[in-house]
Amino acid sequence: MTRIVIDAMGGDFAPAQQVLGCVQALKQDKDIYLILCGDETQIKKELSQYDYDKDRLEIVHTTEVIGMEEIPTKAVKTKKDSSTVVAFRLLKEDKADGLVSSGSTGAVLTAGVLILGRIKGVSRPALCPIIPNYRGSGTFLCDCGANLECKPINMAHFAVMATAYAQAAYGIENPKVGLLNNGTEEHKGLPLHQESNAMLSKMDGINYVGNVEGREIMYSDVDVIVADGFTGNIAMKAIEGCAKSIGAILSSEFKRNFWTKLRAIFTLGIMKKVKKRMDYEACGGAMFLGLSKTVVKGHGNSKARSFAASILQAANAVRGGMVEKIKAMVDEVNAKQTAETNGEA
Amino acid sequence: MTRIVIDAMGGDFAPAQQVLGCVQALKQDKDIYLILCGDETQIKKELSQYDYDKDRLEIVHTTEVIGMEEIPTKAVKTKKDSSTVVAFRLLKEDKADGLVSSGSTGAVLTAGVLILGRIKGVSRPALCPIIPNYRGSGTFLCDCGANLECKPINMAHFAVMATAYAQAAYGIENPKVGLLNNGTEEHKGLPLHQESNAMLSKMDGINYVGNVEGREIMYSDVDVIVADGFTGNIAMKAIEGCAKSIGAILSSEFKRNFWTKLRAIFTLGIMKKVKKRMDYEACGGAMFLGLSKTVVKGHGNSKARSFAASILQAANAVRGGMVEKIKAMVDEVNAKQTAETNGEA
């Protein structure tokens, strides 16, 4: 049984959607056990509406909640009985194998590093969402905002961590890795990107294909795209805005008059399929890579379906041995790096 | 008569599509005069297929072409009789008021700075494309790749140049200006963005609304978005890839079988409207802001319609007095900056 601890109070629609997401996840995956941290009365009230396997769910009562606007370090240090902090503590104490929270990103990042801790050798943990692409699969974009200022060694770690994640949780055997840059030629980018490209080119254990441009996040056969957190964050949100805009334009054109509305009915099925292929809610949340256990950060506005997907995502990463894989791969990168620095390579 | 000089040999489909674009532009705008630089025989052969106002078009024969893969500085310095270099020389010698090229971006940037020259006081010229947005208008994204490494004063100049452009060429009276950042709060971003936000907040003459996130490029009411060239480039191309992917998915779903194809016929009109609202070819090219005259860089893969739009765009910027407006606004920014440095403000 894979044990996932849940921050039931984090998110715009918590705990209602989080609880329903847990119920759905329990139905979809018979091999998970869930520990819900949060206000027991509220959680029980939500649970009372549903039919679920009571043997695979427990509640750990907590009295505090970290709000979206709070200063992360302060909140994590002072709100010891918050659902987020308690969930991370249970994970640290080995009461669970993985964690899912759709609370404040800053609080999750901070609790992850301060309470749970990093994998030894990982310079910087990173956030890795999956962006739906035209192939109908997803592109792993790492980092998307955990680290604004990066060094080449951080980028190298992002590359192996996302590779290990794609392999362990999604069974992608030899994921193609690209570096997000303003052109494909070797000399492109700021010094950070030039040096990172040079370092990635020499690395073993990853399938590095070189620099890739912004359009390749969605329109290419590259599986993993490495980015400094600032650029990754902007790119991810630019794509979100584009998809949202096209959706809004489509919908407004179909609603223009009686005839266009009639046509909308005819194409409803097709539009639903398109939406499904572009649906990043179904992809779950962003994996927080580099921590000593599996942590998934769900969207702040997660609804039940998306939250359930995040839970299954965490369970799959645990079962695939993602953390152990990252550990082994990062060790190898660091050993080679040390050897090179010492002039042995 | 607004005189536009054309680099007829630059672009993937040159000179055929460039020449046709010129013919279309002459039809759409009776007040422009075009000077086409390029191989006379080829241009005449293309022109012979069309009906156009011969009194408003002349050819300046050139013998060389700068390829897309050439090193820009070397090419501009050695290929003195290339269509690009000759076009810029004519512009510099006041034989024309504006220039359009869909040749290599690097060569256009280099020729712009080396042959034509910057507006006095502009620290860095910048590329400013117009990204279609959900409102059905466009967002001016400046810079998109002319300057990878930027300082706050460069960003301040981008803001005023794009504002002047939006006002002069598109009649947007008081364009809203935002700074592309990883969050809207003041402390967000790298030091560059924090300092730029502080500087932009204190500036007169622009309608600054603060930090904006990636999704706001297409999904907001902000008209001008200021970015360092690296981030702007990635964001622009990420959006391009997203739109392309959604288009590909839509088209594949409609082509799936007989029934979906039938439905496609019913919705053809609607899809065309959506495409039109998202069509960045119709927006023309990217304005190269900060040069002493109007220069438009068309897409390398410009077809006639897009090239014609770039010509009209250049003509409108000339008529709206864009360069003079930029000059005045940059002078004001610099004067205030000097005063502050000297402790007078």
Describe the 3D structure.
- The structure is a homodimer of 345-residue chains.
- By secondary structure, chain A is of the alpha/beta class.
- Chain A is 47% helix and 16% strand.
- In chain A, strands 3-2-1-4-12-11-5 form a seven-stranded mixed sheet, with helices on both faces.
- Chain A is globular and about 65 Å long.
Low-pLDDT segments of chain A: none
What is the general shape of chain A?
globular
Q: What strand line-up does the widest sheet of chain A have?
A: 3-2-1-4-12-11-5
Q: Largest interface here, residues on each chain?
A: A-B, 50 and 49 residues
Count all strands of chain A and give the number.
12
**CA(first)-CA(last) distance of chain A:** 44 Å
Oligomer: homodimer
Helix content of chain A: 40-55%
Helix/strand/pairing category of chain A: alpha/beta
Beta content of chain A: 15-25%
Gyration radius from CA atoms of chain A, angstroms: 21 Å
Return the average pLDDT of chain A rounded to an integer: 93
In short:
Chain A has helices at 16-28, 40-47, 72-78, 83-92, 105-116, 152-170, 191-201, 229-254, 258-277, 304-319, 322-341; strands at residues 2-7, 32-38, 57-61, 98-101, 126-128, 130-132, 138-142, 176-180, 207-212, 224-226, 286-289, 294-297. By secondary structure, chain A is of the alpha/beta class.
